[in-house]
Amino acid sequence: MVNPQLMHYLETTIIPQYKQLDTSHSPEHVYQVLENSIEIAAPLSVDLDIVSTVAVFHDLGLLKGRKNHERASRSMVESDAFLADYFTKEQRKIIGEAVEDHRASLSYEPRSIYGKIISEADRDLDFYRILERTIYFAIERKSLSDPDNLCQEAFEYIQQKYGPHHHLTFWLGYSKNIAGLAKIHEMLTDPIKFNSAFSDCYEQRMKKADFLS
């Protein structure tokens, strides 16, 4: 169980800061990564306070820019006064390293079990959530609006990052990610299913977010 005092701080002080970022890195995404992290950690002998803190801080460095944001996230962990009071110096080092190691494109193995947990949790290989986040990102950051262009952008991005020639490493064999990757490959090989999923996401979910008028 996560300490209530720590969770209150994370939910009231840290997570709301994600509202300043694009929708693909919204508080909703952070809560999903947190949920995934707790689920992955359940059978492991780990500290859930550390697991939760890593999950909440992992993308916070995006507030300082996309490039090297994982390093910025670590710096924010190291400079956080509440964390300095709550955790030991060694625990904060573990949190900082795990945050820095979270990226799926990492060229080296995460330095601790906590880095492996956040790496697995942040991938969140759910086809429909990935599709939705990809569309949000293309609209907000690439200024795309034409549905055909958005669909092509989404397909190419998902194919490149998650397709048969992906470079993902499953450090912990999280079953949901393994099953999710299989679903992604299925959708990529069936244009009718992919286009149908795109249309549903674009027309229904995007309207709710007031992207379309």
Number of structural units classed as domains? 2
H/E order of the elements? HHHHHHHHHHH
Q: Given the structure, what is the number of helices?
A: 11
- Helicity level, as a percent range? 55-70%
Fill in the CATH topology of the largest domain. Hypothetical protein af1432
Q: Biggest sheet, open or closed, and with what strands and sense?
A: none
Span from first to last CA?
Answer: 44 Å
Q: Class of the largest domain in CATH?
A: Mainly Alpha
Q: Beta-sheet strand percentage?
A: under 5%
Assign an overall shape. Answer: globular
Compute the number of strand runs: 0
Rg from C-alpha positions?
18 Å
Q: What structural class should be given to the helix and strand makeup? A: mainly alpha
The CATH architecture of the largest domain: Orthogonal Bundle
| CATH homologous superfamily annotation of the largest domain | Hypothetical protein af1432
Residue-averaged pLDDT: 92
| Contiguous runs where pLDDT drops below 50 for at least 5 residues | none
Provide structural commentary.
The protein has helices at residues 4-14, 27-41, 48-57, 69-79, 81-86, 89-100, 113-123, 127-141, 147-162, 175-188, 191-208. The protein is mainly α and 213 residues long. The chain is globular and about 55 Å long.
Task: Fill in the keyword field for this structure.
213 residues; mainly alpha; Hypothetical protein af1432
Summarize the structure.
The protein is mainly alpha-helical and 213 residues long.
Secondary-structure topology with pairs:
Elements lengths: L3 H11 L12 H15 L6 H10 L11 H11 L1 H6 L2 H12 L12 H11 L3 H15 L5 H16 L12 H14 L2 H18 L5
